[in-house]
Amino acid sequence: MTTLRPFTCDDMFRFNFVNLDPLTETYGLTFYLQYMAHWPEYFQLTEAPGGEIMGYIMGKAEGHGANWHGHVTALSVAPDYRRLGLAAKLMSGLEEISEKKQAYFVDLFVRVSNTVAINMYKNLGYIIYRTVLEYYSGSPDEDAYDMRKSLSRDVDKLSVVPLTHPVRPEDIE
Questions:
Q1: CB 3.0-4.6 Å disulfide test: which of 11, 34, 47, 141 passes with 3?
Q2: Does a structural domain hold residue 111?
Q3: Is residue 167 part of a domain?
Q4: What is the DSSP letter of 62?
């Protein structure tokens, strides 16, 4: 049976293989530790019965007023465990935490070329809110979609009215 549990410091030495996907952003140790210290409830993993890390989600709560929201910083599932519904389970957990924090919506950024992820997020109820030009560094830089899903506090669904023009990373609130 798969276990959903909080990410711990010990897991820092066991999750590298989950990040081997070229579409997964890998961060420095201090970045992960910052998330564990500030938003531990948003940093969860799924574990196989044998103790292998199957996938993880890392996020946070941010913003002010009607822009108060949950944010998915990273979501990754190891190749051997894909197409089992683990990403949906992790996303659902982050959405529940955001609901408890009375967030208006959950957002995330995804590469425009990552059609598998985009379609998964759409199936989970996310919409493409806006395009962020040259969000991902590379050769060449790649645009991102800012995808959003409104939560129950956003009764009028104002947080998911798509913008008609792209923005630059420095224009993101």
A1: 47
A2: yes
A3: no
A4: E
Mean pLDDT of 58-74: 97
* Helix H or strand E encompassing 57: strand 53-62
Question: Could you tell me what percent of the chain has a pLDDT over 90?
Answer: 83
Q: How many domains does the chain have?
A: 1
Q: What is the dihedral of CA 136, 37, 88, 23, to 10 degrees?
A: 20
SS (H, E, C) 71-136: EEEEEEECHHHCCCCHHHHHHHHHHHHHHHCCCCEEEEEEECCCHHHHHHHHHCCCEEEEEEEEEE
pLDDT at 1 over 90: no
Phi-psi sector, 157: left (phi>0), alpha (psi -120 to 50), beta: left
Residue 164 in any domain: the answer is no
Whether residue 16 lies inside any domain: the answer is: yes
The residue among 16 and 66 whose pLDDT is bigger is 66
Cα distance between residue 151 and residue 107, in whole Å: 11
For 127, the domain range is 3-158
pLDDT at 26: 82
Which bin fits 134, alpha (ψ -120 to 50), beta or left (φ > 0)?
A: left
Structure tokens at 114: 């990552």
The domain spanning residue 127 has which CATH number? 3.40.630.30
- pTM tops 0.90: yes
